[in-house]
Amino acid sequence: MIDKEKIKKAIRMILEAIGEDPEREGLRETPQRVADMYEELLEGYYREDEYIQFTERSDLVVVGPIRFYSLCEHHLLPFFGYVYAAYLPKGKVVGISKIVKVIHKYARRLQIQERMTEQIAEELQKLTGSHDVMVIVRSRHMCLEMRGVKAQSVVTTAALRGEFMKDTALRSEVLTYFAKEASQL
Question: Does residue 72 have an active-site annotation?
């Protein structure tokens, strides 16, 4: 679990280092609030969900857009956006909420988008029992927008497995669906 007392001490030290008074009325509870926030935002390290599969027939399952929030491991600033996922079932399907839980499990960690995309794809392969998985992540990074280059940009990453890598028509069909859904946001 997260050591909230260490976080509180560190935040207090940061406040002092920037010339603030941690005992000032508006800041007095800030170390506790930040410790509570990190516990919530980083719950993906400790999350273990049970997944249930259902014996149902389906040719293709496409899910998204699913909103996520994460923290960049380089600057501890947020990045957020949407995940789109698809798989070809192999005789079993999983509950859609389970796919959302997988996404949140990996988003709720210190991350880089490229790794998160790969982790989601790998877990979806295990969860669904299908090698045929596609995950697209589109997000905005506050480390790009608030500091450094200060440029607004959308970053897109993809993990293609099995038939989604080989079959361009299938990949195009799913990408068309993702684009249609994205335009409705």
Answer: yes
Q: pTM here?
A: 0.91
d(CA 156, CA 154): 7
**Active-site pick, 5, 16, 56, 74:** 74
Out of 39, 43, 72, 181, the active site residue is 72
Using alpha carbons only, what angle is made at residue 53 by residues 48 and 56, rounded to the nearest 5 degrees? 160
* Spatial CA neighbour of 89 closest among 128, 122, 135, 50: 128
Q: Is 75 a catalytic residue?
A: yes
Which of 109, 108, 107 lies closest to 135 in space, CA to CA? 107
- Work out the number of other CB atoms within 10 angstroms of the CB of residue 151: 8
Q: Is 141 a catalytic residue?
A: yes
For this structure, is 74 an active site residue?
A: yes
Per the CB < 8 A criterion, the answer to whether 78 and 69 are in contact is yes
Q: Where do the domains of the chain lie, and which CATH numbers do they carry?
A: 4-41 (1.10.286.10), 53-183 (3.30.1130.10)
131 is catalytic: no
Known catalytic residue: 104?
Answer: no
Dump pLDDT digits (tens) for 156-172.
999 999 999 999 999 99
